[in-house]
Amino acid sequence: MADPLFDIAGHDLSHVHVPPDRLDELLPQSGDMRQLDRVVWIDPPAKHAIGVKTLRDDEFWVPGHIPGRPLLPGVMMIEAAAQLSSVLYKYRLEADNLQFDGFLGFTRVEHGVFRGSAEPGDTLVLLAVEKKFQRRRFACQAQGLKDGQVIFEVECTGMRI
């Protein structure tokens, strides 16, 4: 079993630090492709973040992945991690008084490991930690937890285009 990237015991996972309407401003993904319900916490230097995605029965992937036993696709787990990483990057830019312009795209996903599954009714707690920050590029380590256990981990690299 993998250990979480950082201790979340002292954090109220029902807290809303970044609400959905602010996510609308920060993320280009919307509708079915939004894989982040809210951000619970971002530390003041914007190097660590906690996000939440509650899996619902009415999500587009439920009927087809896997009929009779719907499992959140791994690529959707990675997308959730990438979205939280994007929010963290944009908050870090703001913390450093840098403006964001252009489009933010992901250029690399590495070290992806799946250790468990998630299905409708589960709450996926997402953790992101800045690994590298530059004005135009960044990399984050990210994990998804279900019931306190790490069910996936990945490293995402993004770039302003």
Explain what the structure shows.
This protein has 161 residues and is of the alpha+beta class. It has a single domain, classed as Roll (Thiol Ester Dehydrase, Chain A). 18% of the residues lie in helices and 35% in strands. It contains two helices and six strands. Strands 1-2-4-5-6-3 form a six-stranded antiparallel sheet, covered by helices on one side. The longest helix has 22 residues, at 74-95.
Task: Give the CATH H-level superfamily.
Answer: Hotdog Thioesterase
- Oligomeric state of the chains present here: single chain
CATH topology: Thiol Ester Dehydrase, Chain A
* SSE order, one letter for each helix or strand: HEEHEEEE
User: Helix count, per DSSP?
Assistant: 2
- For the CA atoms, what is the radius of gyration? 15 Å
Q: Architecture, according to CATH?
A: Roll
Please describe the topology of this protein:
Layout: H1 20-26, E1 38-42, E2 48-54, H2 74-95, E3 104-114, E4 123-133, E5 137-146, E6 149-160
Antiparallel strand pairs: 1-2, 2-4, 3-6, 4-5, 5-6
